[in-house]
Amino acid sequence: MHxxxxxxNDKNGNKNERIVDKLLLSGDRRVLEYTxxxxxALGNECLxxxxxxxxSNLVETLAGILKDEQGDTHLR
Length: 76
Known about the structure:
Elements (H helix, E strand, L loop, with lengths): L18 H6 L4 H15 L2 H7 L5 H11 L8
Helix pairs in contact: 2-3
């Protein structure tokens, strides 16, 4: 949270250049799976959830990715 590793802090500028958006929407399946696993691990802790929720549309982005999944995949 202190170093804003995923650039979730909306108080910083460049809202179109978020690292987490690039990782989630890159198109590479392996990057997407690792990013989702990392976000899941962060979300298991209170401080991690607080950090992730600083990004205003992260929940909508994650829900959209999961909704687009066909079948019961590792990602789901």
